UniProtKB/TrEMBL annotation:
SUPFAM superfamilies: PLP-dependent transferases (SSF53383). Its EC number is 2.6.1.-. It comes from Thalassococcus halodurans. GO terms for biological process: amino acid metabolic process. It is an enzyme of class 2 (transferase). It catalyses: L-aspartate + 2-oxoglutarate = oxaloacetate + L-glutamate. One of its GO terms (molecular function) is L-aspartate:2-oxoglutarate aminotransferase activity. The keyword Repressor does not apply. This is Aminotransferase.
Length: 388
């Protein structure tokens, strides 16, 4: 066959995509084995039946043809109102592009912010698709490696030592660490972005899951609304992962050009799914809290069960549906620990190395199984670590 493009063959920079343990666990599940999966951010609380009914009624009502590519007017308006209420920043439907999930928004944001060959900064630890998304957009990824001792937050000094770049990607509340950036951290980030006159790409898909502190959208800080591309999604807040509906918030001119990009890439999101998202958003904060509460409850379960361990150091999660555990005192890497935990105890977690250099020697635990199963898994995980 003809040669494949460098862009497509270098997405993972010659390495893996970071999902090896997950794939191994799924193969065993497919073979009929019982595995406790604490790997991906897939809420165990499924999409609310009323949302599915709204989707169904829209589909049988005929909203199955091409929908407006930037998003239906109803959903763009609903998202604009939600974002304005959360952030306090005036937001209209002209600031909103509806996308097939947050991943499409992430990719589009980098195509918007970066020309081919530009450097794009991101924080390490990071969600596993970040560097590949940047490479796919034709930019050059550059990680800012944080430290667990600083709560995995970037410092002003670290930011100042980076090369010239077109964009900086942040994620708060954070996957994989559960860190929620405080006002001082965000002020340092925004000051850096303003001084460099660059784009800030802010992944805020976990904004409804905050257990300590408060979520602050950087778009709300001075002179940031005109230089921030904010990513959101229905996946985590409303347990609609498979529906693939997200959004990108930005200046009107940027969104107009991004709508042109959507025409030649995704061509929008199905109308009946958008109608279901409108219905879901109309249910207000109560439904969002319903989907968030189990993760806070499980965070408390894990903190209790791991308290006093001399082998596992817990980085207390402030938000999101994950917790990061430091297992370096076992003498194993995160990769080794995760593979052995799966092989010897039938529990699947993600190695910290899947999320970058800063998380080496850690594991990420997704709190995405029922409370009883989660409690048993954490107890077994502690027993396994201490047996080493």
């Amino acid at each position: 066959m003809p040669e494949l493009s460098n862009r497509i063959t270098t997405l993972n920079n010659g390495g893996t995509d970071g999902w090896d343990v997950f794939y191994k666990a799924r193969r065993r599940v497919a073979a009929g084995e019982k595995i406790t999966e604490l790997t991906i951010g897939e809420p165990d609380d499924k999409t609310d039946p009323e949302i599915l009914e709204a989707m169904h009624q829209s589909a049988i009502g005929g909203h199955t043809g091409y929908a407006a590519v930037p998003g239906t007017p109803e959903l763009r308006e609903a998202v604009a109102k939600r974002v304005a209420a959360q952030s306090g920043v005036p937001t209209t439907s002209d600031n909103v592009l509806i996308t097939p999930g947050a991943q499409a928004a992430l990719f589009a944001a980098h195509l918007c912010a970066c020309d081919a060959g530009d450097t794009a900064l991101y924080i390490d630890p990071y969600y596993v698709t970040y560097p590949g998304s940047i490479r796919g957009a034709g930019a050059v990824p550059h990680a800012i490696v944080t430290a667990p001792e600083n709560g995995f937050c970037p410092t002003a000094i670290q930011l100042s030592e980076t090369p010239e770049a077109s964009s900086l990607l942040i994620n708060t509340p954070n996957n994989p660490t559960g860190t929620v950036y405080d006002a001082n951290t965000l002020e340092a980030i925004c000051g850096f972005v303003r001084d460099r006159d660059m784009w800030l790409i802010s992944d805020e898909v976990y904004s409804t899951q905050v257990w300590e502190g408060a979520h602050i959208s950087p778009r709300a800080l001075p002179d940031m609304a005109n230089r921030t591309l904010q990513i959101g999604s229905m996946s985590k807040s409303h347990a609609m992962t498979g529906s693939r509906v997200g959004w990108l918030i930005g200046p009107e001119e940027a969104i107009a050009h991004l709508a042109d990009l959507a025409i030649v890439t995704t061509y929008g999101v199905p109308g009946y799914i958008q109608d279901a998202a409108v219905f879901a958003l109309a249910q207000g904060k109560g439904l969002e809290d319903k989907h968030a509460k189990p993760f806070e409850r499980r965070k408390n379960i894990a903190m209790r069960l791991l308290s006093g361990s001399k082998v596992i150091q817990v980085i207390p999660p402030m938000g999101a549906m994950y917790m990061m555990l430091d297992i370096r005192s076992t003498g194993l890497s995160g990769e080794e620990f995760a593979h052995r935990l799966l092989d010897e105890r039938d529990i699947a977690v993600m190695p910290g190395e899947s999320f970058g250099q800063a998380a080496a020697g850690h594991i990420r635990v997704a709190m995405t199984v029922d409370d009883q199963t989660f409690e048993q898994a954490i107890s077994t995980l502690r027993e396994f670590a201490e047996s080493l």
